[in-house]
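Let's study my pick:
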Amino acid sequence: MATTALPPIDDASSLHEECVEFPDNFLLIDLCGEHDRNLAEIERQLGVQILRRGNQLAVVGEPAMAAETVAVLRALYARLESGRSVEHGDIDRVLRMGDQAGTDDETCDGDQLEMFRGGPVEIKTRKKVVEPRTDAQKAYVLSLYNNDLAFGIGPAGTGKTYLAVAVGVAMFIEGRVDRIILARPAVEAGEKLGYLPGDMKEKVDPYMQPLYDALNDFLPAKQVAKLIEEKRIEIAPLAFMRGRTLSNAFVVLDEAQNATSMQMKMFLTRLGEGSRMVITGDRSQVDLPRGITSGLHDAERLLKDIPRISFNYFTSRDVVRHPLVAAIIDAYERES
């Protein structure tokens, strides 16, 4: 049973209790989680106490927080009733977004309206189903489906690259694209590439590791290796894109703030028939030499009014890594 102590409250009379009943005891066990860890997480984030009483949960806290907690519990239980699981990320999503399972006609059109109408925004891959955990992430995922070229701009940990690769994998599985191409600028940080041991692949692979990590989250490792061998998945430095036309592909440029203006123009003009392109970057982490303008900055300025090109922005509120990451980002932004 969850036993988190209530936060100090000056007026104990302001405490309020709300009870909610769940008819399926097995689903209630899943809702509570192993050793009631799901309840403990909700208690920690909302500052309430949750008590189990048979097939009921009693929520004790300030009235507004108690009511919000009941809404969260009901949303998570409804998720279980629909046959889906409840993990830590699902709790975080409901706490951030509430029970926003469907999409609005205003935010989604065409095939995507039919894909998501009346249900959650889900990206289905071989290994897992990925769901946006903030409103900004949800808008970003919809824009990836709705636009031929989409930008995701914001601080580290907001899911820009992760969600882009997830959508790319989903489109590949559905047969909507023939290949996935992932690129990053191989910007040197202290060590010259030529001085590093190994052949060219061994030299640049450390720069590409975050892209490998994302792929391995969505596809079995053996399948990833086979698709890379068949050139149906390519992971390469940005410079390797020169002179190519990327047709029928889902193309992601990660860490785009480290592309120069000429590199960005080169990459954007690789877009071929039947392809989708996603550009992700963090304007606060430019590693280019002093005096060289980031291509991401120029792209924002030059392309913002072109139809079927979307710009999606994230803030520290969209960070889905450790809670300290958001605090660290805020601290640095205050200093700048």
